[in-house]
Write a structure and sequence with these properties.
Layout (H helix, E strand, L loop, with lengths): L11 E3 L4 E3 L15 H4 L10 E13 L4 E12 L3 E7 L12 E5 L8 E5 L1 E6 L5 E10 L4 E11 L6 E7 L2 E7 L21 E8 L3 E4 L3 E6 L6 E6 L12 E4 L2 E2 L14 E6 L4 H22 L7 E7 L8 E3 L2 E5 H4 L4 H12 L5 E2 L5 H20 L10 H11 L9 H22 L2 H15 L3 E2 L1 H15 L8 H10 L4 E8 L4 E8 L17 E4 L1 E3 L12 E4 L3 E4 L9 E3 L9 E3 L1 H11 L2 H6 L2 H17 L4 H6 L10 H17 L6 H19 L8 H16 L3 H15 L12 H10 L2 H12 L7 H14 L3 H12 L8 H11 L3 H13 L1 H7 L4 H12 L5 H13 L8 H35 L1
Parallel strand pairs: 3-13, 19-20, 20-22, 23-24, 25-32
Antiparallel strand pairs: 1-2, 3-4, 4-10, 5-9, 6-7, 6-10, 8-9, 11-12, 12-17, 13-16, 14-17, 15-16, 18-19, 21-22, 25-26, 26-30, 27-29, 28-31
């Protein structure tokens, strides 16, 4: 879902069927401490707390040629209870000889804590199936004792980014560490959990011609006693920190000269930029942005991060998607940082405070840490450039994707990584909600106090909410009986979001507000939905007293199903609740209020007074509520009438989503042609006004023109089709068409949809004859559009015959998967696929009898996308005709029948309403 953080707030359309997807909205890849599928699957190798580390002393000696390293660690330990066992983390690949392990007890009576006596090590062994190493002692050590544990070890330098790894760029190599979330145990024996925060004293061997950068600066460098061409860097002791923030990089690095003469306080860390060569011109602008971002973040927290330097190392081919944010050392992939985005830089800097200095106790609270850093990075971007970097799509892109995902019957049913990401995104939006409802000053002061109280410590979620509650109570922005733990808890407890419905009584000037689970997919039979209730801030704007700068709740719905409110305006004035998407929930109104909102937005003053995000929200809520069955489609269509005058790209972006979703939803009905005429009437004035592209124009305008053009082409806009065919003709007339494709991608689908059979056949030949020397993703795209954009059944039949029966070497099993999936994007596609399956049942069944994956996919694609009674009857007939012969796909076709039955209800209820509205609209336009 990054943001969303991008991956750039861009709207993606997966041709051939132009399926719209929400993307993350900032412009970056999400960062650590980072929740991911791997984090969710972390083994719970938790250590006992009978012994705790107090400090580490580590020496590391990499051997580049052999791809190994050796080292020695001394850990100061204190006994919290009597025991003769020391348990710590050590990966299976870390070699330890227990005969060389030493344990010495410290004499606490000696002021210098001199070593007192040796404790005999009986043996060392690994815990079964866990990366835990246990040192068994011959005697029980009493509570309160202190010992030094010394362990020599050897390990491997990895090619992949786990533990200590090796990379290369051009003729240069480098060593770097990536220890998140629990890979410190690959590098040295340790207590590899975030909660164990202690100082490290580290020395690392390197070749004389290289540089090693560590968490802290070099204190001194000494000669190596054996390797004469090597030296040993001894680094300053680190502050208390978790093992996952330990890191270093060794290579032939070039330091960017600091000629900006930026003023800094003595308490500020020095920020250095490093790369593999002199990149002063390329990095100077980013360096300046980094300094500005750091200053902005420090001013927000009101306290400098307690380290003397932050080194930023830019690596061209860093094999990690996200940056590596060790304390005092950041590793960026060059392609990420050179995009000049404040967001990427700000998020990594924020982790220096919240992540390294103040740390989640365990990875289950990681989503909170990530959400907080992401929100603050967004605020930093807005502070520095007014949000220009986001292109106006934060937080809407994030929010819309959450609305979509959490309204499914089975959110993230098979995608663990997506689940972890959306939990973090939702938490970020809850923090944003608190920033509005508590006030920016309260949130800022609360976070500052939180950092002061938990510096060098770890926290759990309740610690943060308690700190913010205390500040809000002190500032008077929260009622004395409220606690944020209770409020936030309802938002984080469910993988759902609420919707509120406002019914106004225009005679008594009162309103009833009800909440329920927001669901779009039918049937709405989610278990326990009646038990799901949220604390919801009700922020009201009345037409006669519009004030969109006030975000204080009129009232909180205190985890209750319904409330009543008074003092509503008269029957000629609308109300707006949850302006600017302050809280992550859609809002429904009674028919009369919607009618007044639609009329107001069609006036110039209405579009001027109502802010951008609020206009987008009203439009987005209306369409999604209609899709869910909670609002008439006539009302939803009425809310698009103001788009005739609207030119803001933020408001247009969700419109393309609605067009795609409804267009695909009614694709098989007779109403669809009228819907395409409506789309042409809606988009043509916008496209004509946008005009020809200008090189210096803003990106939002380019994106808006591109989206408009794509949908106009899909709906049969003649100028677009002519442009597409003219561009395609160039390819047709090339002497060597297999060597390259000169046609822009957005022109290919219109040609295959609206063009001739000869043009389609030419595309098919290019797929069959596609050279292996060219980029294969180009062939994939061409095959997707051949299948998904074609509307003539004879073309689709030809492609299916070739790919399934003719054993053509160019069509692989993956191609068949792709073709089946692409055909589900339109009614002509899945309708033809169904007919092909019905007509050739016996040879197809024989063909796929030993390939259950492909067979199951075919049955699902051919039967799972019908939406009408006619489609239900067709699938049921196939089911009965071949009863008992579906094999592994038996449950798939049965599920298809259940779903189609539900979808037919939607069609019966909504298609007549949509057709009536379209008839009326087209008669006037």
């Amino acid at each position: 879902m990054n943001i969303f953080k991008s991956n750039a707030y861009n709207l993606l359309f997966f041709l051939p069927f132009m399926f719209f997807c929400y993307k993350t909205s900032h412009a970056a890849v999400r960062r650590s401490i980072d929740t991911s599928a791997s984090y969710a699957l972390l083994t719970d190798d938790r250590l006992p707390t009978d012994i705790l580390p107090q400090s580490y002393e580590i020496h590391l000696e990499p051997n580049y040629e052999q791809g190994t390293f050796s080292g020695h660690v001394k850990i100061n330990l204190v006994w919290k209870s009597d025991t003769n066992k020391i348990a710590l983390h050590a990966h299976f690949d870390l070699n330890i000889n227990h005969k060389k392990i030493l344990v010495q007890m410290l004499n606490k009576n000696n002021s210098d804590l001199q070593l007192h006596k040796n404790i005999t090590v009986q043996r060392g062994s690994r815990f079964p199936k866990k990366t835990i190493y246990i040192v068994y002692l011959t005697e029980i050590i009493k509570q309160g004792s202190e010992c030094v544990l010394e362990i020599p070890f050897e390990g491997y330098i990895w090619e992949s980014a786990e533990g200590l790894f090796k990379g290369s760029y051009s003729n240069l190599t480098y060593l770097a560490t990536y220890l998140r979330p629990n890979n410190a145990r690959r590098l040295f024996p340790c207590f590899d959990e975030p909660r164990f925060k202690v100082p490290f004293t580290v020395s690392i061997t390197r070749s004389r011609h290289l540089i090693t950068i560590f968490n802290t600066p070099v204190a001194r460098t000494s000669e190596h006693s054996i390797l004469k061409d090597h030296v040993i860097d001894h680094f300053e002791q680190t502050p208390p920190m978790s093992t996952f923030t330990f890191g270093f990089v060794t290579s032939a690095l070039f330091k960017l000269k600091d000629d900006l003469k930026t003023a800094r306080n003595s308490t500020d860390p020095v920020i250095n930029f490093w790369s593999f060569q002199d990149r002063t011109n390329q990095l100077k602008h980013i360096y300046k942005k980094t300094l500005l971002a750091y200053k902005t973040i420090q001013n927000y927290f009101g306290i400098p991060v307690p380290i003397s330097k932050i080194d930023v190392v830019v690596i061209p081919e860093l094999p990690i998607v996200r940056p590596v944010d060790n304390w005092g050392l950041l590793l960026f992939k060059e392609s990420v940082i050179t995009q000049n985005r404040y967001y990427d830089i700000a998020q990594e800097l924020i982790y220096q405070w919240i992540g390294s200095w103040v740390t989640p106790e365990w990875w289950t609270d990681d989503h909170l840490n990530k959400a907080l850093a992401s929100f603050l990075a967004s605020e930093t971007v807005i502070k520095l450039d007014g949000g220009v970097e986001f292109n106006g799509k934060y937080p809407m892109t994030t929010l819309y994707s959450l609305y979509y995902e959490f309204s499914k019957r089975y959110p993230h049913s098979r995608i663990t990584a997506m689940k972890q990401e959306t939990i973090s995104y939702k938490t970020e939006l809850v923090i944003r909600m608190l920033n509005f409802t508590l006030g920016k000053d309260t949130l800022q002061k609360g976070l500052k106090k939180f950092i002061e109280d938990y510096q060098y410590k770890t926290f759990v979620g309740d610690d943060l909410w308690s700190a913010l509650t205390s500040q809000a109570l002190k500032d008077g922005t929260l009622k004395s009986q409220y606690r944020l733990t209770d409020i936030v808890g309802t938002w984080l407890a469910y993988q759902r979001l609420p919707v509120i419905t406002v019914h106004r009584d225009y005679e008594t000037n009162t309103a009833t507000i009800q909440q329920k689970v927001y669901l779009r997919e039918r049937p709405h039979d989610v278990p326990d939905q009646d038990k799901m209730l949220w604390w919801i801030p009700i922020i009201i704007n009345q037409q006669d007293t519009l004030n969109f700068s006030n975000s204080s709740p009129y009232v909180w719905m205190e985890k209750t199903r319904q409330i009543n409110i008074n003092n509503m305006p008269g029957n000629d004035k609308f109300i707006i609740i949850n302006q600017e998407e302050i809280g992550p929930f859609p809002v429904n109104y009674d028919e009369e209020n919607w009618k007044m909102l639609s009329a107001f937005l069609q006036t110039e003053i209405g579009r001027t007074v109502v802010p951008t995000y609020t206009r987008a929200k009203l439009l987005h809520d209306a369409w999604n509520l209609a899709y869910a069955g909670d609002l008439s489609f006539a009302t939803a269509f009425n809310m698009t009438l103001f788009m005739k005058f609207e030119r803001n790209h933020i408001i247009w972006n969700p419109v393309f989503t609605f067009i795609d979703q409804i267009g695909r939803r009614i694709d098989m009905s007779e109403v669809h042609k009228k819907f395409e005429e409506y789309v042409l009437a809606l988009l043509t004035p916008l496209y004509e006004e946008l005009g020809a592209e200008i090189e210096t124009e803003d990106n939002w305008k380019k994106d808006l023109r591109s989206l408009t053009k794509r949908f106009l082409c899909r709906s049969g806009f003649r100028p677009c089709i002519k442009e597409a065919k003219d561009a395609y003709k160039v390819w047709l007339n090339m002497a060597t068409p297999n060597l390259e494709n000169p046609v822009p991608n957005h022109y290919i689908c219109p040609v295959f949809k609206w063009g001739s059979t000869d043009e389609w056949q030419f595309g098919l030949e290019r797929v069959i004859q596609f050279p292996k020397t060219r980029i294969q993703s180009e062939r994939t795209y061409l095959l997707k559009t051949l299948a998904g954009c074609s509307t003539q059944s004879e073309k689709i039949y030809r492609l299916l015959e070739l790919s399934i029966f003719e054993e053509h070497s160019n069509f692989t099993e993956n191609d068949q998967f792709l073709i089946f999936s692409s055909l589900t994007g339109s009614s002509s596609g899945y309708y033809t696929l169904f007919n092909f399956l019905s007509e050739y049942w016996t040879p197809i069944r024989q063909k796929f009898k030993n390939n259950t994956n492909l067979w199951d996919h075919l049955i699902g694609s051919a039967t799972g996308f019908f939406l009408t009674q006619k489609g239900y009857d067709m699938v049921k007939e196939l089911y009965e005709k071949h009863s008992g012969d579906f094999g592994s796909a038996q449950h798939i076709i049965e599920k298809s029948l259940r779903n189609i039955r539900e979808e037919t209800l939607w069609s019966k209820e909504n298609l007549p309403v949509i057709e009536t509205w379209l008839n009326n609209f087209l008669s006037k336009n």
